[in-house]
Specification:
With 408 residues, this protein is an alpha+beta fold. Helices cover 25% and strands 16% of the residues. It has twelve helices and 13 strands. A five-stranded mixed beta sheet has the order 2-1-5-3-4. The protein has a five-stranded antiparallel beta sheet with strand order 9-10-13-11-12, covered by helices on one side. A three-stranded parallel beta sheet has the order 6-8-7, with helices on one face. The radius of gyration is 22 Å and the shape is globular.
């Protein structure tokens, strides 16, 4: 398809032109936003909540972290997790409840205990990283109100401080641990933010309308959010020749920053079958949209099934960091390996060593099993479709299976 050519709309699922969610308890509806707009850009530009910072744009420093409460397809209940807002596309937050640092406390509404403790322990100098630390701790306490000191330390593998040093920050956070001595609750005051300045005009902000720079254009990619595999393949089949991007966590753009030109963006998180998990007599089966954090939990829960599961979970804990693992998927990680020779994937290596098997679904609707270690070998694909078709615009990983011996 020629660049700039618009996707064909032949009935069925229509592209998204609006997204609804709550921000700090208030309902929000955004219409006609650019598909490339990130949650971080919108938070800072439209409602002007600049407590959520932006720095690396890679999901590595943690200053952009916000808390998200959403339905967990694996746990089948609402859970709160920390995410990197710089890597999160605005259109992907449909139905989410998003909380920023302004939503939990301020000098006017009163500070949250986390903010109080961080100030009491002198855990902030320039303060740029502070909101990210605060919201990461807030998210952890929403998941586990009584974490251990070790659990708290493990949760901060995605936060960087460039000036204060980590001891004072960690002391403040560990004061919330179930195995820590009670700390002082006294709090020192902090300076208020200055007046809001428009980043585009340089003058004072004139209102809360979405900046024109972030409005959708006719040439932008169309955003789809199918709710079934039939709808997914219907969108792809109705737009032959279109350049398609399939995603669930979309954390790969933190590594490969130059965006590829696409005509269609498809969010896979609304397809229940891609988030299904199953334990059989001989394997652990995991859907393609299951996050790395949920995969770790499944391996830990079922470690009695195989001597390898504890080690596999331990290894996955060394991949990226908590906010990235909360949304990044194993299938997306494998696709980064497939598409980029310079991406060394621990997930690929681990799955290959464990003898995992992929189930691949091309746009024709039939599926095909394939060993993980063979996914980069064209001769391993036995169907008439080419490897590029299976793994490129029209193919997805449905699920994979971790084998283990049956119990004695």
């Amino acid at each position: 398809m020629e660049p700039g050519t618009q996707p064909l709309l032949q009935g069925g699922l229509s592209p998204k032109t609006s997204v609804s969610f709550t921000l700090n308890g208030e309902p929000v509806v955004v219409t006609d936003a650019a598909p490339c707009l990130s949650l971080n850009e919108w938070i800072r530009a439209q409602p002007g909540l600049t407590g959520t910072k932006k720095m690396c744009g890679e999901g590595g420093c943690g200053c952009c972290i916000v808390a998200v409460t959403r339905m967990d397809a694996v746990a089948r209940k609402e859970t709160t997790v920390a995410i990197n807002s710089c890597l999160c596309s605005l259109y992907s937050v449909e139905g989410w409840h998003i909380t920023t640092v302004e939503g939990i406390g301020s000098s006017t509404m009163g500070f949250h205990p986390i903010q109080q403790q961080l100030a009491q322990h002198n855990g902030s100098q320039c303060g740029y990283c502070t909101p990210g630390f605060v919201m990461n701790m807030y998210s952890l306490l929403q998941q586990n109100p009584q974490p251990t000191q070790q659990a708290i330390e493990d949760a901060f593998d995605g936060n960087i401080c460039r000036c204060t040093g980590y001891r004072s920050i960690l002391d403040a956070m560990k004061s919330f641990a179930v195995d820590a001595d009670p700390g002082s609750k006294a709090c020192v005051d902090i300076e208020d933010l200055g007046s809001r300045v428009c980043p585009h005009s340089g003058g004072a902000c004139q209102g809360r309308d979405l900046c024109k720079a972030y409005k959708a254009r006719e040439t932008d990619a169309k955003w789809y959010q199918p709710s079934s595999l039939d709808e997914l393949f219907g969108v792809i089949g109705s737009n032959p020749g279109c350049r398609v991007k399939l995603f669930a966590g979309d954390t790969g753009k933190g590594i490969f920053k130059k965006p590829k030109e696409v005509d269609i963006v498809i969010n896979l998180n609304g397809i229940p079958s891609l988030s299904e998990t199953m334990v059989t007599e001989s394997s652990l089966v995991v859907g393609g949209a299951v996050s790395l954090s949920n995969l770790i939990g499944l391996l830990q829960t079922n470690q009695g099934k195989s001597v390898t599961f504890e080690h596999l979970a331990s290894h996955l804990l060394k991949v990226a960091n908590v906010p990235v693992r909360n949304v990044g998927t194993w299938a997306g990680n494998l696709m980064l390996t497939h598409d980029n020779d310079n991406f060394p994937s621990d997930v690929f290596t681990m799955m290959a060593a464990a003898g995992a098997t992929l189930t691949i679904g091309p746009s024709g609707g039939h599926t095909q099993p394939l060993r993980v270690r063979s996914m980069l070998e064209e001769q391993a694909v036995t169907s008439p479709d080419s490897l590029a078709e299976l793994y490129g615009d029209s193919g997805i990983f449905f699920l994979y299976s971790f084998p283990f011996p049956p119990p004695p």
